[in-house]
Design a protein that fits this description.
Layout: H1 10-19, E1 34-43, E2 49-55, E3 66-67, E4 70-72, H2 80-92, E5 100-104, E6 108-109, E7 114-123, E8 136-143, H3 144-147, E9 154-160, E10 163-172, E11 175-178, H4 179-192
Parallel strand pairs: 1-7
Antiparallel strand pairs: 1-2, 1-4, 2-3, 2-8, 5-7, 6-7, 9-10, 10-11
Length: 194
Amino acid sequence: MSYQDNPLPLADFIRRFQLQLPEEQASSRYQQVRPAAVLIPIIRRPEPTLLLTRRADTLRKHAGQVAFPGGKTDIDDHSPIITALREAEEEVAIPPHKVQILGQLAPLDSSTGFQVTPVIGLLPPDIQFHANQDEVATVFEIPLQQALMLSRYYPLDIQRGGHPHRVYLSWYHSQFIWGLTAAIIRRLAQQVRM
């Protein structure tokens, strides 16, 4: 039976996510942690979707990569939620008051020295996106049920800084999803599976 034959209702996703006990703060492999946060936007459509962006090709770091709206924590940000909401508004014009926060995943280390906290938020189906052209090339959605299929994520073992490191790869139509973004989605999928 495929995901289309047996879709995961949004209410079940929320229940499964919120029933999990929060993990303790993850330790970082970096001596000086630079905090960051991303918003994992889930749109309340009849078939819920996960919102992703493809970063502008002109950016200095991670140009052209698929990502969640997010970025480094500013000095005035008092929580990862504030960072994620601020960055989502800057990048794709999601008004913070339109986001219903469900919670957070444990932080993950990025390859660029940041410890990134994923913040899960629900958006209304009539939400309008306006990509900031300086940061975002395109905005697209993946059906949540497809995104949460663990079989979509292929491991690749590489060497980074002389140490073994595993990255995950996935595709959705013409979009290549890998690295931290794929790791975040995969972790969310692990948390909500039965």
